[in-house]
Amino acid sequence: MSSQTLKYCPTCGAQIAANSQMCPKCGAIQPTYLGEATRSVGKLQVDPAIRDAASKKITAGICGIMLGSFGIHKFVLGLNTAGIIMAATTICTCGIGSVIMGTIGFIEGIIYLTKSDDDFYETYIVEKKSWF
Fold first, then answer.
1. Nearest-10 Cα torsion for 2, 80, 46, 26
2. Which keywords are on file for this protein (predicted)?
3. β-sheet bridge partners, residue 39
4. What local confidence, expressed as pLDDT, does residue 47 receive?
5. What is the CB neighbour count within 10 angstroms for residue 71?
6. Portion of the chain with pLDDT greater than 70, in percent
7. What pLDDT score does 46 carry?
């Protein structure tokens, strides 16, 4: 099977077919789409990628609000080109551009923090959306 047709069980981490409804290793019922929570052995299970994105969401959101003019929130998300553009604009304009970049960072920080974990993951981790 190619990597396109495989996924990992959010309960035990076993590599299974992407269309599996149940993990053959642990028996956990699988989400029908990425990020959907499912009941398995009385516990609420969430895709590990969504859980990791949630911590990035909070870190990027706070960095966007506090240090937005330097583009730190972009580097947290792995959007290095956008981060370099923001930092270079702030530095090369001797701080004058920091008002604009700070405003952009503040708005993006608020957007990050108000998105659901699923939407944030899809938009900024999967699609790598750089601006707003």
1. 40
2. Membrane, Transmembrane, Transmembrane helix
3. 44
4. 66
5. 27
6. 84
7. 60
**Residue 87 CA: distances (Å) to CA of 22, 58, 79:** 47, 21, 12
| Closest to 18 measured CA to CA, from 37, 29, 32 | 32
Give the predicted TM-score (pTM) of the model. 0.63
- Interval 114-125: pLDDT, tens: 998 888 888 888
Q: Give the 3-state secondary structure of residue 59.
A: helix
Residue with tokens 């959010």: 10
Contact between residue 76 and residue 68 where contact means Cβ atoms under 8 Å apart: no
- What the block records as the tokens of 37 is 């929570």
CA atoms of 9 and 20, how far apart (whole Å):
9
* 60's tokens: 């990027």
Residue-wise DSSP of 77-128: TT-HHHHHHHHHHHHHTTTTHHHHHHHHHHHHHHHHHHS-HHHHIIIIIIS-
* Beta pairing partners, 40: 43
